[in-house]
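Human: I hope this is not a bother. Would you mind checking the protein record under this note? Thank you for your patience.
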Amino acid sequence: MASSPGTPQPAHPPALNPVEAGENVTMSGDRGHLRVFIGMAAGVGKTYRMLIEGHAEQEAGRDVVVGLLETHGRVETARIAEGLPMVPRLRVTYRETLIEEMDVPAILRRAPELCLIDELAHTNAPGVEHPKRYEDVEQVLDAGIDVLSTLNVQHLESLNDRITELSGIRVRETIPDAVLGRADEVVLIDLTPEALLDRLRAGKIYPTDRIDAALNNFFKIENLAALREIALRQVAAEVGAKRLTTELVGSREESLAADAPQAIGERLMALVEPYPGTQRLVRRAWRSSQQLGAQLDLLWVRRPGQNLSEDAERSLAALRQLASVLGATLLIEESDDPPAAIAEVARRRGTTYIQMGRSRPARGFARLRPPLAQRLMERLPGVDVRIVADRSSRSSDNQPASRP
């Protein structure tokens, strides 16, 4: 079948799955071990540390390869990579532009013990098997190959709004937080904002012609200080979660206790509607659920027969996608009595905590009714109800919110 001019074509024929191709490829029954080096921003030394670790493993006798390395023209990074074998990149053509991506089939054929894969949040060129590099990494791990990778904290999906508030820049490449949560080890590469700015001014991060723009935008010291705090908190949360998991499975008695039904558990429900601002509420609800160790449900109470505009349809599709990325459950109920519907779903789902945006100002006789939050507390006396502010529009009164 002929392809359109905009469809990317591999520069060499795509490799079959090694098993399907009948090749003699060593496949381990055990999943590989993932270690992620995380930092507050570009230039803190994540890739450098990954390469150092790769050399140490090679010297210890392990079979190590570089699956994908992005030096960004940094001489120090290129120098430290010398001596580590590299898997040639896959070359694809997209809109008459030649793009190089990681060649996953080649890595699987090579079957090393350890593979170094830079920039976990990278988005692959159209036409590559997986849209995102973290999906490539999952395939490598499933083949029993250990992986070292790198990530900037601003690429975590649940932090997207917070990073935008801090820097004024919307990060487009994100990964689900669950990807980091599945890592066997998370290593923080820490550097003070002052030291990072010194590296930037010395030309060790970006070329000279990009330094001023970086200093005036993302690399402001107040941004870096906030990002550093976020990175520290994120790693502390990951370590805490892994410590809890380890304690639960540390002995047979603890394992049996963990398998038993829990008398008290947390389940959070966020009230949503199909408009763009809902995504901000969902991300905040997800982070609250992680702090509580709770499952997250998203509930939209739709009026019977309600027709959606094109913008609302797009917002609903985006909401479904975000729920899928974060591992939340999106529920849609039709009712002309939102408080009753919310209460019924909360009882059915075992909700212990409800999170909602502030309600729109009531009009007409609706002003005589108690606010939605109050009506929910009356119907659900054992459930906590929290109203969250929209930090992006503290001085604005036009924020869409939950229906009263």
Remarks:
- Residues 1-28, 244-264, 394-404 have pLDDT under 50 and may be disordered.
- The radius of gyration is 24 Å.
- The longest strand covers residues 295-302.
- Residues 265-393 form a domain with the Rossmann fold fold (CATH 3.40.50.620).
